[in-house]
Automatic annotation (TrEMBL):
Residues 49-230 form the Ribosomal RNA methyltransferase FtsJ domain. GO terms for molecular function: rRNA (uridine-2'-O-)-methyltransferase activity. It comes from the Eukaryota. InterPro entries: RNA_methyltr_RlmE, RNA_MeTrfase_FtsJ_dom, rRNA-MeTfrase_E, SAM-dependent_MTases_sf. One of its GO terms (cellular component) is mitochondrion. The active site is at K187. This is rRNA methyltransferase 2, mitochondrial. It comes from Caenorhabditis brenneri (Nematode worm). Keywords: Methyltransferase, rRNA processing, S-adenosyl-L-methionine, Transferase. The lineage of its organism: Eukaryota, Metazoa, Ecdysozoa, Nematoda, Chromadorea. PANTHER family: RIBOSOMAL RNA METHYLTRANSFERASE, RRNA METHYLTRANSFERASE 2, MITOCHONDRIAL.
């Protein structure tokens, strides 16, 4: 039965294409073994989180305390929705919007734009329309991950470019306004363009910190850039 599943955006999804090579089967077995014993995967299941990444956001919020009960939050790259689960819980009187390329099952308290590519002008217009009624945004989250090409340098640059797209939404495109004490938290895969991107962020935020929550896998190049105090 497991032959009918494949990795997509970090998750196993059903697919008619079958793994035919020994290498793919080995990777799948290692993935299943790691998932069944991984501390954060087990805890995510216990707490009904849709993904273990919920613990990354909780750890970052415990450190910087930026999710407030009244916050307006937009979570870009939100599927399957574990960050949204954390945000609706911590911001019960705010407004929470999620956006993803994939279909996202409903979450009470979250306004979700499924099947929506953040790079598309139509999607950006929809976001602009929805947020126009809400005033400024307090927190912008991006945990996006493009499908890996297998080349780390290329994947790093593609993800930085996606983060830049989000950054431009509230700096150049004015799709919405980020509040003065606003926060932008984005995931990157580490690589050569990190320094340059941090410099760009530092031009618009007084504080830019690099964080690696304990729930990030040791062998992963994943890092989070936490930006606060929008100038
Ligand atoms: C690691 S997952 C996010 C997990 C999520 N934070 C959670 O806790 O459930 C990355 C997501 O980014 C989405 N993504 C990648 N490129 C995107 C794009 N251009 N527009 C919108 N979403 C995108 C993928 O579809 C995928 O669902």
């Amino acid at each position: 039965m497991l032959k009918n599943y494949r990795f997509f955006g970090g998750f196993l999804t059903k697919n008619s294409r079958r793994f035919s090579t020994k290498k793919a089967k080995g990777n799948l077995n290692r993935y299943i073994q790691r998932q069944s014993t991984d501390e954060f995967t087990v805890r995510a299941r216990e707490h009904n989180f849709r993904a273990r990444s919920a613990f990354k956001l909780m750890e970052i919020d415990e450190k910087f305390k930026f999710l407030k009960p009244e916050s307006t939050v937009i979570d870009i790259g939100c599927a399957p929705g574990s960050w949204l689960q954390v945000v609706v819980d911590r911001c019960p009187n705010g407004y929470v919007m999620g956006v993803d390329l994939q279909n996202v099952l409903p979450i009470r308290g979250a306004d979700i734009l499924s099947l929506s590519d953040i790079t598309s002008p139509e999607v950006q217009s929809k976001i602009r329309e929805k947020l126009a009624k809400r005033g400024s945004v307090d927190v912008v989250l991006s945990d996006m991950a493009p499908n890996p090409t297998g080349d780390n340098a290329t994947d790093h640059l593609r993800l930085i470019e996606l983060c830049r797209t989000v950054f431009r939404l509230f700096t150049e495109e004015k799709a919405f306004e980020l509040s003065k004490n606003g926060v932008f938290l984005c995931k990157i895969w580490d690589g050569s363009a990190r320094g340059e991107f941090i410099r760009e962020l530092s031009n618009r935020f007084s504080t830019v910190k690099t964080v690696k929550p304990t729930a990030c896998r040791d062998n992963s190049a994943e890092l989070y850039l936490f930006c606060r105090n929008f100038k």
